[in-house]
Write a structure and sequence with these properties.
This protein has two domains: about 1-30, no CATH class; about 50-270, Rossmann fold (3-Layer(aba) Sandwich), CATH 3.40.50.150. Helix content is about 30%, strand content about 25%. It has eight helices and eleven strands. The strands form two sheets. An eight-stranded mixed β-sheet has the order 4-7-6-5-8-9-11-10, sandwiched between helices. α1 (about 50-65) packs across α7 (about 230-235) and α2 (about 70-80) crosses α3. The longest helix has 14 residues, at about 70-80. The radius of gyration is 19 Å and the shape is globular.
């Protein structure tokens, strides 16, 4: 089993019944949901990652199947890249929808490895731990992972910050990285319903020092959001919501359905 590292002293953590503990007696309680919080204390009033409302919106939206084409593509790619005993990290795992699919597809193809999930949002990673009890989940910044160098075979990085140096540190030589980023026209119609001047996303920079880009895959699909609840959920689970003023947010209250372009780029790298 892969060991987590103590965020205080860097020693190896050992899992006991309800706690992770290092040899220096630093201990971290395992929450009822099954995850462990390895983040340092947050400054008062500071939000870390997705809050409860955003996590609930993402859970509701993904449960309706709108992104099933992406979830399936990610899971299949992981099953192809991961060997039967691979150690895999979902870096920025959110509430675990993708993580669940990855585990199921890999297990169906004979995978016996270890699955980990990390997210800076304790609310999100708590849900992920409940959704995928077979995995190990911890709240941590993906910029400072509590993992030993060269300990992972595969990292999955979906719509979350790309921590190039840290990912390179924890991947084994020859390990893989799967990134998913939005393409230029992703959710353009949603932005047009909110903003007077909707804008396309800038092209993703795919170069990464120490990584060799093996291949890319583009996924394009137009989805029809069939209720205002789904329109609001999609907006709330994006970064746009908290960057948008109250007046623009209100524009979606009258939108009962919406056809939206989804454009995803999957990029596979190797160290």
């Amino acid at each position: 089993m892969l060991d987590l590292l103590c965020p205080v002293c860097g020693g190896r953590l050992t899992r006991e019944e309800k706690v992770w503990r290092c040899e220096n007696r630093h201990s971290f309680d395992i929450a009822r949901s099954g995850y462990v919080n390895l983040l340092p204390p947050a400054p008062s009033g500071k939000r870390r990652g997705d809050d409860k409302r955003m996590v609930a919106a993402r859970t509701a939206f993904l449960s309706r199947g709108y992104y099933d084409h992406l979830i399936g593509a990610v899971a299949e790619a992981c099953a192809q890249l991961a060997g039967p005993d691979a150690c895999l990290l979902d870096a920025g795992c959110g509430e675990g929808t993708y993580t669940r699919a990855i585990y199921d597809v890999c297990a169906a193809k004979g995978g016996r490895g270890q699955l980990l999930g990390a997210d800076i949002s304790a609310e999100a990673v708590s849900r992920a731990a409940r959704r995928v009890p077979e995995g190990i989940f911890f709240a941590a910044s993906t910029a400072h992972l509590p993992l030993a160098p060269e300990s992972l075979d595969l990292i999955v990085n979906i719509f979350s910050p790309f921590m190039e140096d840290e990912f390179r540190r924890v991947l084994k030589p020859g390990g893989y990285l799967l990134r998913v980023v939005p393409m230029e026209k992703h959710l353009l119609e949603l932005k047009a319903a909110v903003y007077d001047r909707p804008y396309e996303n800038p092209p993703a920079a795919l170069e990464a020092e120490g990584f060799r880009l093996l291949r890319t895959q583009e996924l394009r699909k137009t989805i029809t959001l069939s209720s205002n609840e789904d329109v609001q959920a999609l907006f709330l689970m994006t970064p746009y919501y908290y960057k948008t003023g109250a007046e623009d947010q209100k524009k979606l209250s009258a939108v009962r359905s919406l056809r939206v372009t989804t454009e995803f780029l999957l990029a596979v790298y190797q160290t």
